[in-house]
């Protein structure tokens, strides 16, 4: 099994850490959708990260879909999401907020790093920034009172990976001092072996 993509992508990294927690063995092929475009296209012509190739030759894309598949296969002791409907709805709500923050961070970064400054559309930048900050405020409130454990679930995995990505890419936009709960939880989980195994 091969997981293709760079660990500086929160989508690739959340997939890698989750697979490890599921007990799934895989090879990590660290190919960039930018600098390794041609080589990446040999595994997935659409050049989408993460791409996962199963041992049966099935190509899976999109981190949420990949993780949904392996969550279905996982035994009760390995599941990263609750099975009770109310608890699952709650975790899904939080994950939705986290993934909004990830998406808006990527949009902000692409706007500033890939588009020439004279072609950047300031109203769009302001809108994306506002959405990102609001998502982080909602996220902070959703997990207030959460006590980190030694057994991360999917909310912990995705939340830690996305928060670390935000702080890596745009700490001047989303200041950690304004989100102490998110920062404390991420620091706790980033120190665990499974997170250290897949640094961003």
UniProtKB/TrEMBL annotation:
Gene Ontology molecular function terms on file: glutathione transferase activity; maleylacetoacetate isomerase activity
Superkingdom of source: Bacteria
PROSITE patterns according to UniProt: GST_NTER
InterPro entries to which the protein is assigned, alphabetical: Glutathione_S-Trfase_N (IPR004045), Thioredoxin-like_sf (IPR036249)
Swiss-Prot/TrEMBL GO biological process terms: glutathione metabolic process; L-phenylalanine catabolic process
Pfam families according to UniProt: GST_N_3 (PF13417)
GST N-terminal domain residues: 1-78
PANTHER family to which the protein is assigned, alphabetical: GLUTATHIONE S-TRANSFERASE YFCF (PTHR42673:SF21), MALEYLACETOACETATE ISOMERASE (PTHR42673)
UniProt protein name: S-transferase
Record organism: Tatumella morbirosei
